[in-house]
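Hi support team,

I submitted a single chain yesterday and got back a structure, but I'm not sure I'm reading the token output correctly. Could someone confirm the output below corresponds to the sequence I sent? I've pasted both exactly as they appear in my results page.

Thanks,
R.
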Amino acid sequence: MNKIFKNIYNFCYIKTQVIKPQFHGFSVYGLISYVFACITGAEYCCDIYTLLGLTIYFLMYFKEELWPQKLEKYHCVYWYFALLYCLPFLSTYLIYNYNAKLDTIIGNALSLFMLAILTDWLSYIILLVLGFSIALLIYLNKIGFNINVHDLIYTEQCFVIIYSYIISFVIVTFFSRNRYLIEQEKINHFKFVSSILSHELNTPIASLKALNNAIDENLPVFLDAYEKAKEMGIPVKRISDTKYKSLIKTINNVNNTLKKINNINEIFRVKLNDTLEEKKFNKVKIQDCISNALKDYHFSRSEKHKIKWIQDYNFEFKGDEILIKHVLFNLIKNALHFSTEKSFIEIKCKKEVNKNILVFRDTGKGIAADILPYIFERFFTKTEYGAGIGLSFSQLVMRKIGGEIICASEEGRYTEFKLIFPEIN
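Hi R., thanks for writing in. Yes, this is the structure output for that exact sequence:
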């Protein structure tokens, strides 16, 4: 039973992440519909099932005030229960129970239209079938199942319901198609933005690199001329040894900075397009990746001390140091964002049969069990600052080098990522 409820909860949760529940809007719709039905003298206003639906709308509208905090995580399940009961079930039951009166037909049409707007195609079909089946069973139970199949099918109620369902099916197909196109447009927009930014960054980077190379090539000539001028007694403005060394160092720093900018530009493009071009991987030492990631990450003063790196095992793998470094950047950023005052981050490597593993573990807030299955999905995020592409990118990189990334977590205790690298033959 627990497994069934867990599957239902996971379904409701992931669906409400894609299409956000409109709790207040839907409850206002329901309350207004009931008031309007009372004003027009609808016969079903005092029906027990109608009053139960009114209670569901009421609890939904005041969920912030009435619901205990520990039940907030079940809002997604309540949302789907409310949709099931108040839309396909109640409207179908009222048509059967009140002989397809005009007000019940209008209510059914509005209910199915609302269901089409508020759900995706799969949810719509599931709720529609469940709602119709439960309504029919309750109606048949009420009349004592004293009706044959022929009389049940060839009734005005049945024809009205079938007609309403066909129309609503056309509507939901239209809305589902629109949602798909909107999602594709969003992805295409990301790709377009990434290509524009990549192109716009490449031009000034190339110019700066050419300029820096020209300075690097010609500076020794100018410095040699400067030294000869001093030897010949020609009056020249003196360059101190400190400035001389600083000038040489600056050229090297500019080269390194340009390389970093170029790498960031490439990582940005990969993250947004969710594709990684084929490239020749080289042998890389994991401790070099960790060392450079910790050195280049911009820690605040209060964050640096949280890192505990156990350097008792090193291994080589075929991959790209820059890509793995940015995978570590993602893990560090997430761990720090969900850290607590006393939490820490532990990084260590270990050997297992036919594979090497980097273990990245933090003792922060952890990840809820219902969220854990979806953290590697693209655009999935539970934070306001995130875009939902960091862990998706990390998984893409690890799989590209023939490895894998997995996560285990317990809310309130820890989160542990394992980066699995294949052994080099």
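A quick pointer for reading it: The chain has a mean pLDDT of 79. Let us know if anything else looks off.

Best,
Support desk
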